[in-house]
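YM 10:42: Peptidase S24/S26A/S26B/S26C domain-containing protein sequence, as discussed on the call
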Amino acid sequence: MIGTITCGLPILAEENFNGYITEAVDLLPSGKLFYLETKGNSMTPTIPVGSLVLIRQQEEVENNEIAAVLLNSDTEATLKRVRYQNDTMILMPDNRQYAPIIVNEQNPAKIIGKAVKVTMML
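YM 10:58: structure's back
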């Protein structure tokens, strides 16, 4: 686990190694994988606050998939559902109390990876 990611307003993106999580290798997808712990509730009810999200590092995701995304010149990160509308990428929260983030030249974004597993913490 390398840190936290916001499900709300973007937070400073920094890697903070927090330890290891044991998983059965045969149940994991291929590729470089890492866990992030969620903060904020913009992805509720799909991903509750404090959940662990397994991210597969990749630069692209399909329409409507959830991804970890870097914003503001790679200094802030957020977890959102990625939607494509024509040539525009829109980062959508699952919680309707939050506004979408429209990616453009003034608000650039870069996908870090796809959310492939969510573990809800009790």
